[in-house]
Fold this sequence. Notes:
Layout (H helix, E strand, L loop, with lengths): L1 E4 L2 H8 L20 E5 L5 E3 L2 E7 L2 E4 L21 E5 L2 E3 L11 H5 E3 L26 E11 L5 H6 L18 H13 L4 H9 L11 E10 L6
Parallel strand pairs: 1-6
Antiparallel strand pairs: 2-10, 3-4, 4-5, 6-9, 7-8, 9-10
Amino acid sequence: MKPILFSTPMVKALLNTKPNTWPAEPIDPSGPCKSQTRMVMKPQPTLESGKPDFWHWRDCMWANGGLGFPESGIADHAPYKVGDRLWVRESHVFANHGDPVYKADFRDKRGDYWASVASAPKEVKWRPSIHMPREAARLFLEVREVRAERLRDISPEDARAEGSYLDRCECLPRGNDKTPVEAAFSQKWCRVHGTEFRASWDAINAKKGCPWESDPWVWVCEFMRVEGQKHV
């Protein structure tokens, strides 16, 4: 089982996702749920000199639009594979802040999770999600699909699956290569069905050199929240 880290808003979206249900559905339809995440590919694919539509990445090669063919071999390098089980790291705290020992009764007796707390005393020292060990995890996922694509190829449906609300921010077409009809459609769905995905992406990745405007290649991981099973 592998760890995966999510911000507090994304953990809240996961908590609002029905477990053992695929395609994913929200528990409360008025709030977002989450069944996808995107991660920057490292290193970024590069274009072959003289062939602006032919990409190279490690030992993989493909033309634009060709990632659907298994010959590229790119899925062999994905950080997560179909069928992998993941446990979610999130911000948390212990009732006894000085006790470094994590036990199975963490949720019931010894601590809490920032995503589930309406308010907390200022003196409480929350532990960043990166420091959560496996024993304190409460959320588990099963990988259903992994693919590679450009960040700004995200669709309205995928933005929703990322855990975004549908009325927050503006996304624009990648460039001027779209026809007027395509550009108008892209701007329309972003204006009317727009998401906060762009803002949340930049809040985490812009400072790492991969802002929305740079349109990096990303891994897209689709997953199902699982419960009632033995997680090993």
